[in-house]
Amino acid sequence: MRYINNKLRIENVGLDKIAKNYGTPSYVYSYSQLKKNIIDFEKNFKSFSPLICFAIKSNTNVNLIKEIKKFGLGADVVSAGELMMALKAGINPKKIVFSGVGKTSKEIAYAIEKKILLINAESHSEINEIERIAKIKKKKVNIGIRLNPNTDAKTLSQISTGKKENKFGVNGKTFVELVKFCKKSNNIVLKCLSVHIGSQILDHKPYEKMLNILSKILNKIKYNFEYIDLGGGMGISYNNSDNKLNFEKYNIAIKKFLKKHQSKIIFEPGRSIIGNTGILLTKVVYIKNSERKNFIVLDSAMNDLIRPALYGAKHKILPFLKKRKNSNKIYEFVGPICETTDKFSTLKKFQELKEKDLIAICDVGAYGMSLSSNYNVRPKAIELLIKGTKIRVIRKRQNLKDLM
Fold it and tell me: Which residues are part of the catalytic machinery?
C-alpha cells in the first residue's frame, strides 16, 4: 500500500480502478506482501527449519491457500471443512495437523482416512474416540496431546487460549496421565506435544514462559516426542502504537529449548502470514452530521468485517485521495447494519471526506473474510488478488438472487 500522486495503490493498481471494475465492498490482497511474509517467517527460524502449517481458519480462500502451498507450507485445520479446503488446495496430507476441542466422530474418521500428519487431541474423551475409530479401521493413528500451560499471552481476553480458565488443552497432571495411557494403546502413536497460548501476541516473554513450562513437563515424563507443536499467535502491527514481536528473542529461546529436547518444531501461523496482505475497499454512502460527531456511513458493514464489533479491534483507515486538509470534526466510520456495534473506528483527526469517496480499511487479511457472514441478508464481498499490475478474481461476489 502506497500513495503515488496522492492516490492510494495496492502494488501497481489504483484503488479507483478496482472500485470501477469490481465494485465495493471488495477484499483486495497483495501477492508480493504474502510472499514477503512467508520468506521473512522462514528466515526468522531457519536455524531449526520448522514445519510451518498455515492456520486455515485465518483465511479460507482456496486460491490464496494454493499460493501459500507453493512455498511448501502445510496446514493447521480445526474442522473437516478446513481439512477438505487444505486438501483441495493441494497441501500434502503429511503436512496437515488437525486441532480443536470438539472434533466429531465423522471428522476424526475423515482425518484418519486422509492419513494426515497429526490429530492434536484435547481431552481424554477425544483420545478414547480416536482409539475406538482407529481400532474399527484397523489403523495406527499419529496423535498429539495439547497441553494447557496456564500462560497469559498478554493479548485480548477473547483470543487467549493458554490460561487454565480457557477451554483448550489439558493441565499438566492430566497430560502426564494421557501420555501413560497412549503408551499402552495398540492403535494410537503419540508423536507430538502441542500447545497454543493465544493470538495477536506482540511480546516474546509469554512464549519464553511457555517453553520453560514445556521443558519442565518433558523432564518429568521423559518421553521423546517427535514433534513439539508451538502453535502460532504471532501478532502484527495494526496501528502505529503496536509493539512488534521480537522474533530474534523467540528464536533464541526455542534454540535453547532444543538443546535439551531434540524434536521437530511445528508452527501454526495465520495472522503473521496473511494479516497485512489485505484491505477492505469500501465507499462512503452518506455523511450524517450530528452534534458530537459525523457518521461516515460506508457500504461495508460488520457482516464483512466483524473484528471491531467482536473484539473491539482497531484497523487503520486510509482515504483513497490524500490531498484534502484535515477535518476538525470527529468522524465515526459505521456500516448500514441495524446494530450499534456496526462501526469500524472513531477518529478525531482525519482528512475531510465527501460522499462517494473511497476508503481502505487495512490489515484485514486474517479473520476478515473468514469471519464474514450474510447477516441482514447481505451478500459477501468479492475477493481479488493483486500481482503487480494484474488483478485476479479469487472469489466472486455473492448476489441476492443466489442468497434467495
Answer: 338
